[in-house]
Here is the input.
Amino acid sequence: MFGQCPYINDVVKPCTSYVKGGFCSRPDLFRCLEYIKVHEPAISFSAIKDFTQCHRKYWYAWGQGIELIEKSRALRLGSMADQILSCLHDSRNVGLNPTPEEQYTKMINAEIEKTIDPEDSDSVGDLDLWKMKALFDGYIELDRHTLKGITQHEFRWNEVEYPKLHGYIDLTLREDKFGDEFKYTNNPDWYSERWNMNDQLSAYFIGMPDLEQFRVICLVPPALKMKKNETITKFYARMREDVIQRSITAYFITTTFWRSEFDLEAYKRKAKMVSEEIMHYIVQDPIKLADPFYQNLSACYSPYECDFIHICRSGVMPENLYKKRLPR
Ligand code: SF4
Ligand code: SF4
Here is the structure.
């Protein structure tokens, strides 16, 4: 049965290691165990997803707050695309000098510049960044960026007898009645299926009660290859032209979903069950918390390699690969 947190120092209330919001500053913990004992943990769609994939994954990511120092290439490109979209679509950026379009251009050119080898006159830089530039330059040319709203819109769902649900929506529009989720991906078919988007969009519809309609917009980087003897300027121009010509069918794949398509009560019950399970595991044994948060080895490489594979395979946390994240 759960005793007191073994590390508690309650000479100072609530505890010298306590960080506002239910966090702990100890290097081996992220969430405060005593806080979770009293309050159900606030959870997000991503935390629920991690917990249902593998309990250990949840514990590493959300209990101990561990993350990779160096993100995967796909994640780095995805977060750069998110940053560009936030800059272009945010209504709070209208009227800024430099304009959002100028800020984006400066940013992408600087990123490409960093990848060009100054010692090599043939070096053209990272082609994936050129693809991103062609895609977003086409996006702006087609005026898709002129839609303005609130980007990274934070929501909090507080309903009696349910866990607190917390998250961010990429873009909300027209008094929060419409929302957009952007995916920078080579696999738009996956995100166009309601089945695959069910949990994420259910969380958004629950968190934002006025939301009626949600669009999932997949931005697909060009798959064109650079031809022999083609200069980077010509390759870039060819990609950009292709983006403009085949924008809707190949590059900006949009699927619209409506609130009525989702069983929100079922997702609320799922969130409740997950949060109760987490509390149950935490009260089992505050010393060996990794035990109740057991591993699911069939989730290590499917659908992609888990961030924590180096810890699970070696049994220790390599300090050159991982760090503890800060409470958000
Ligand atoms: S988990 Fe909570 S009680 Fe334990 S040391 Fe950290 S802040 Fe203190
Ligand atoms: S590597 Fe496998 S067992 Fe370890 S946390 Fe990830 S999914 Fe779970």
In short: The longest helix spans residues 264-284. The beta strands are 18-19, 23-24, 66-68, 150-157, 165-173, 178-184, 213-219, 252-258, 322-324. The chain has a mean pLDDT of 92. Residues 18-70+269-324 form one domain.
